[in-house]
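Box 3.1 — From sequence to structure: Endonuclease/exonuclease/phosphatase domain-containing protein
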Amino acid sequence: MTSSVQGEVRKRVSTGGDERLRKIASVIAATSPDILLLCEVDQCGDGGDDGTIKQFLRKYLTDQQENYPYFYQPAVNTGKPYKQKDNVKNQPDFAQGYGFHHGQYGFALLSRYPICTDEIRSWQKVIWQSMPKNRMPADYYPAWVETQKRISSKSHVMIPVDIGGTRIKLIACHPTPPVFDGDEKRNYSRNADELRLIRDMIEGADYLCDDGECSDPIEPPFVILGDLNADQYFGDGDREEIGRLLTHPAIHKATATGHLVPASHRAKRHAGRIAKGNPFATHESGLRLDYILPSAEISPLDSRVVWSANDLPRPREADGTADFSTNGSDHRLVWVDIDPKSLNLG
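Predicted structure (token representation):
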């Protein structure tokens, strides 16, 4: 749900007749997740719903809208101009994060459970240079940009959700794709440092303060979720950096690298181009780019990537032949079911 024209997505959603959005909604309705992160949802840039999410729920998820009484859209860096323009056009590439307008490619969290808005923490404004041993390409950006450039291309946020009295901290982000580079490898480097930022957030790295000046680590239980634009075995990203995240001791092994890594047999048939036949593919290229990573204290029960009805938590078609391989996006919905007992809910 993104467009180079600001406000265009809101107009498309309001008609209720967009075929691509209808297909996306069909996957959401069939899966019916308790908590859902939607990536690449345009917004006003400074956070909050400009009407797009409310209209999407009302027009396309009519039977589901009551399931998501809570939603949150953080401020993002995409399309955000620098403080000093220096006679250079800021957009789309010359901005804090790539975008034709401030708020393009944002993301939204939808939830059945209350969102603890007063406890949300953001690392949107962390300056790239402040990260020790950062990978910002030398002599590529003007000096005045280097002092302003942020690590997060969109935003890195921690959103607590209250599930039966237990706070689950949702760590949401959408790092930049590690491609569309020149020899300077600016996007490759930024993607790697955005992945490292996630680790630094949960470890409470010494250099790091969130936008509220708090440097405390994110305590478990937590769940990392988002389009991380990195695959541990294929593609153009830094495979070692995504590997460090997936093997982090604070993250449950099963859905990161073990027997519950989300997969689909249908992905072998439909995903190609870069990694043909990869059952863990969440993208049409065959790459695993989209993740749900619970902390080690949380017990995952099952998981899947939705390419067909066979991949639904509760298949609605008896023969499982419904095909979601072309349903509105080049990414596929990923779901992970967790054991409520591991949340001390009884």
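Summary of the box: The two ends are 38 Å apart (CA to CA).
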